[in-house]
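## Example record

The block below lists the input lines for one assembly entry, exactly as stored, with component labels intact.
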Amino acid sequence: MNQRRQLDASKRLRKMHEDLLRAYGPQHWWPAKTPFEVILGAYLTQNTAWKAVERSLENLRLAGALTPEGLRRIPLAKLRRLIRPSGFIMRKAPALKAFVALLYKEFGGSLEAMAAMPTAALRQRLLELPGVGDETADAILLYALGHAVPVADEYLRRIAERHGLVVLPAGRAKISYDDLADLTRRAFAGDAEESRAQLFNEFHALTVAVGKAHCGRAARCEGCPLAADLKSNS
DNA sequence: CGCCAGGCCGTGT
DNA sequence: ACACGGCATGGC
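Predicted structure tokens for the full assembly:
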């Protein structure tokens, strides 16, 4: 019963992906930049507008801190100043330092070596770092390290709830991160394994695209390409 | 001026 | 388990 409804939810997420792909086209997100820059962006964008992150990244670029070695050298106080535009500097600056420290301590400063770890163990490792929660860990795994994991962000939660795409498990007040991630996995379970990472990549990128445009905290869903589902699924 | 942004974490029920 | 507020800064 609940099982069947979850299957339906997965199908709705899959349909949402097709609808968004038709409306926005392929996003090919983040791969253009270096994996390390992707990681910095994943930290800096936490509860922060991407526009502000861009300025921080530019500051880091000018300071030569867009590489593990560059960031490792830079003093904490200077790092705080460089990332000031994206806020939460007292948390994010030490968090970035902690990541680089782990990278050197356990992987000789090599992201390739880090990426070679099995997905589950690596995810656990990342979650132990300060300032890394579910979403940041998954974003790093998917967009910087090439692991096929879904990323479930606040936009996806809002879209899923507002459009009635998911059914809340009995006894739960709201859909959890893990449940959303599982549903996303199921949504693409029928696709070839080799293309799974690319699909998760596009799905999250499209979610953010539509989320920014139509699904902010206080936003109404006017003009949203998914608006038709609001009626058909309720 | 007030709300909000591609979360995370400590604390309190 | 879950709610709630703080965290910093800047765009709109």
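The mean pLDDT of chain A is 93. Residues 47-49, 51-52, 55, 84-92, 171-174, 176 of chain A lie near DNA strand C (CB under 10 Å from a C1').
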